[in-house]
From TrEMBL, chains A, B:
Gene3D superfamilies according to UniProt: Aldehyde Dehydrogenase, Chain A, domain 1, Aldehyde Dehydrogenase, Chain A, domain 2
Keyword Cell membrane assigned: no
Top-level taxon of the source organism: Bacteria
Pfam families recorded: Aldedh
Xref: PANTHER family: DELTA-1-PYRROLINE-5-CARBOXYLATE DEHYDROGENASE 1, ISOFORM A-RELATED, DELTA-1-PYRROLINE-5-CARBOXYLATE DEHYDROGENASE 2, ISOFORM A-RELATED
One term under GO cellular component: cytoplasmic side of plasma membrane
InterPro entries according to UniProt: Ald_DH/histidinol_DH, Ald_DH_C, Ald_DH_N, Aldehyde_DH_dom, PaaN_2, Proline_metab_enzyme
Region of interest: Disordered: 46-65
Keyword Membrane tagged: no
Record-given protein name: Phenylacetic acid degradation protein paaN
């Protein structure tokens, strides 16, 4: 339990704390040195070697969205009590370690995960359906940066509590002197429940926030997306062993769609912290049932685009199309509802009718989604077959009510002819078709919505955010007063508003150390990456006082 | 909405933030300039003048524990919806005010409450049964200091979020530049539920933590202890008016024992924050039912004294007796279970048998509780008649099982012959009589418990803390190794341990800015005065981004 690893990573930690304060652009990690699939391919069809409790069983739920083939990997499956027992047994040494020791070990874990970036990225590709590029960045370096951000915020929060104090006060003619000691005590066993399509981005912050504050952690991957988390957990466990800690501190709870264990974990009497990413319905169940555990959730929302006015329209359409296509909109930050004034959109090239806007947007989407090489890089594959069923349903509803501008058409993946793919479904509806677009339709679905004007759109969209949740929002306007109104309204509705963004950055890109992700002000989740309240409750302060002297004058 | 009040109180705020960091002794307030009962007496039997919603009704539940007479004051009673509506209507201007403006206004409120210290203290005396001395300090300056502490911690937390950032990052050959703005958004209507016997100490921190972070607050006093809170709320409302804010921002929900409104408030759909002080059972209900509101609770616990060894015994007995007598142990920090090794207690004057210890403690208690002037100053009166019933019950149980060392005898109050008083019930039992002492017996009840040794006592007491809650603990030992073990065990059990304290400071005195009160690690409550997690969740961060430029090389 030396501070060697703290010394090794101290500059990174200090730089991360500084970045959280200034919220400027920064990353702890460079591009991975390799993107070779060799390590991933060597794992296929074989047992996943790790030394945790349980018995090996093939994970039938884990099927590549690209090949349609099972990965054929068997993982150790242990029942919940055994995982909790292992975590509890490993806990004391970790709990008693200095926060600097724990921070050093956690940052070493991040570095080791990064060292396996290529293997983790291919695992991500063949479980989530992400493209390799997104797997290396969004699920790789960016996700790790959010983990480092959580370590930095938690370390800063712990550092604000002094280790001791000397306290002296007069009581009548006497002065009482006490020496006080303040101990940081972790809350207890933490459970991190991951989603199927983008596990790392939420798991790393939760895992490291709980770990660095001294808690044991059980990671519960989605049964169809186990491998990336298994690799990350193994890398962390190896760092624990190498640092003299019990690797049982971090467990992996592998379950199946047929026999899920999430509710057992959340309700386990020893569990004190739950981080959950997934559906809004399950998230509400977790928030209502986690007690006495504290719950941090990120669920889903319905994100909107407000078109008020624009200078040049084409870059806007390209930006929107890119965002609708990115990972086939299987992201909690993807926009869905695009409001356009029915009287037309004022632009630098004159008034653009809703019809022209909608056709232009459909063209811009097609320019990505129907060109196989571009589509493969941007859209990737569809994680779950259920998404295709949903697309079919929504397509029928939209056709019955409005007009389908673009059918949800698969594209042919250049390397994987069996890939489960789909371009966006784009439909034009009226603002009165609220039942069609009020809730999140997870996947590549977007609506162009005729509205009276951009203020009506703002009222509708922010009310939907308050009632159904929203994480992001987008506005285009040449009128600053409108953007001011929109920013104020979205601040209260609890979604992040991005205005007038075009160019190469994906609209819904969320930067570690800079962008607060989820606000807790609407049903899209109660936790924010990474504010003080995400880290401050994971440890508690207990104090002791000893009489130093009681001098009488 | 100027920063005049911030400028006025800036030094106090900075000093408080510094005290929270060093945790040294400090107070923002001197002794009150008067303790005159004139203002309090002028209020008796008259309507309480305030300009909130509702209709005046005499508060029959408010009966002085000293005189047995109703105070006869009528308060405005408004239904929950009207209070929430008033709070919601007053909210926008406060929410939009700069945190410095809000901090200045809150510190002015504290100053105005302090200016009415004498009136509030007499109100406290005749509702809670506290002595005048305790009403002026524990419910006066010390409670206000805990309020200032919460303001300081919340202000520091808000200050850690920058207002804006400029962010630039390369995407391929282009650099994307964004200007970002971070807004602090309060969570929403806050409810503060006060207890009957010591309302100010928990209400001030909760009230000001929620207020300074921008939330409207409804204070719900106990029906038998309204006046002090009504005076405090009115003082705060007048500061709001004088500062140009709507006084409806702070409401007072007056209810009756027959028709309580707490559950209606906690479950009101507009309520987003609940602070609760009261019984463990009701606290658990609040924690389980507050969702989607966030709940901060302080309930009750069973606090212990571990006798391992001592130098001089008499100062220890005096300190323990003082703590058992202080406000007739109607405090969540009062000790109840005193463990003594049945083989005797090693002291500087030789081995002291349990019998001798128990008799000595009883004598030390009698020296306070049977001398009317001392008793009046230390014990005060019994807030609720239910406490006398409980004392009777516990006395019978103890007599049937062990030996009653001291009956719960009333003392004759020098100025109020009708006062409801009681000295401590002190009983000697064995460690196997666990059912008698496992739970908190609220009021002046203490057990001297024969145990094998101090380590058995430590195991029993910390397990009780984990299962039934505990806030404080006390140990006496000349063996530092034992104190180290005890500190570690209590750190995990989540109670604050005070060791070897004798002299003029009451054992269970908890100092603002220095002592963390409640840990959240056991059932005695989930919130701590005042750590980051007590304040960080009362506001959220929402962000907006605007494209600054997208330059292509």
């Amino acid at each position: 339990m030396t501070t060697d690893l703290f010394d090794k990573h101290r500059t990174t930690l200090e730089r991360a704390i500084e970045a959280c304060r200034t919220r400027e652009s920064w990353s702890a990690y460079g591009e991975p040195s390799t993107a070779s699939p060799a390590a991933f391919e060597a794992q296929l069809g074989r047992p996943f070697e790790d030394d945790g409790p349980g018995v090996q069983a093939v994970q039938d739920d884990e099927i590549s969205p690209y090949t349609g083939e099972p990965l054929g990997i068997s993982y150790l499956r242990a029942d919940v009590d055994r995982l909790v027992a292992a975590a509890t047994q490993a806990w004391p040494r970790w709990r008693e370690a200095d926060p600097r020791v724990r921070a050093g070990v956690c940052l070493e874990m991040c570095e080791r995960i990064h060292a396996h970036a290529a293997e983790l990225a291919h695992a991500t590709v063949h479980t989530t359906g992400q493209s390799l590029g997104m797997s290396l960045t969004g699920s790789g370096t960016n996700a790790l940066d959010r983990g480092v951000e959580a370590i930095a915020q938690a370390f800063a929060a712990m550092s604000r509590v002094p280790g001791s104090a000397r306290w002296a006060r007069a009581f009548g003619p006497s002065t009482v002197e006490l020496t006080k000691r303040y101990r940081l005590v972790p809350r207890g066993v933490a459970v991190v429940v991951a989603c199927a399509s983008f596990p790392a981005w939420n798991v790393y912050p939760a895992l490291f926030a709980s770990l660095v504050t001294g808690n044991p952690v059980i990671v519960k991957p989605h049964p169809s997306s186990v491998l990336q988390m298994a690799l990350a957990v193994r890398a962390c466990r190896r760092v624990l062993t190498a640092s003299g800690f019990d690797p049982g501190l971090i467990g992996l709870a592998v379950d199946t769609t047929a026999e899920p264990v999430t509710k057992l974990l959340v309700r386990h009497p020893a569990v004190r912290i739950v981080d959950f990413t997934g559906s809004a319905a399950f998230g509400s169940w977790v928030e209502a049932n986690a007690f006495p555990a504290v719950a941090y959730t990120e669920t889903s929302g319905v994100n909107s685009v407000l078109m008020h006015s624009a200078g040049e329209l084409q870059p806007v359409l390209r930006a929107l199309a890119g965002s609708l296509c990115l990972f086939s909109a299987q992201m909690c930050t993807s926009p869905q509802n695009i409001y356009v004034p029915r009287g037309g959109l004022p632009t630098g090239d004159g008034l653009v009718s809703v019809e022209e806007f909608a056709e232009g947007l459909a063209d811009a989407v097609r320019a990505v989604s129907t060109v196989p090489r571009r589509a493969a890089a941007v859209l990737g594959a569809i994680q779950s077959p259920a998404t295709l069923t949903l697309l079919d349903e929504v397509g029928k509803q939209a056709a019955a009510r409005g007009r389908v501008l673009l059918d949800a058409q698969p594209y042919e993946h250049p390397r994987h002819p069996e890939a489960r793919t789909s371009g966006p479904l784009l439909a034009r509806v009226g603002i009165d078709d609220h039942d069609l677009f009020a809730a999140e339709r997870f996947g590549p679905v977007a609506f162009v919505i005729d509205c009276d004007d951009a203020d009506q759109a703002l009222a509708r969209a922010t009310q939907d955010a308050r009632e159904h949740g929203a994480i992001t929002a987008f506005a285009y306007a040449t009128d600053d007063a409108y953007l001011d109104r929109a920013e104020n309204a979205y601040a209260l509705a609890g979604a992040a508003l991005t205005s007038n963004l075009t160019g190469p950055m994906p609209l819904n890109f969320s930067a570690a150390y800079s962008d607060y992700h989820v606000t807790g002000l609407n049903p899209a989740g109660n936790a924010s990456l990474t504010d003080d309240s995400f880290v401050a409750g994971r440890f508690r302060v207990t104090q002791s006082r000893r009489a130093a002297a009681a001098s009488r004058e």
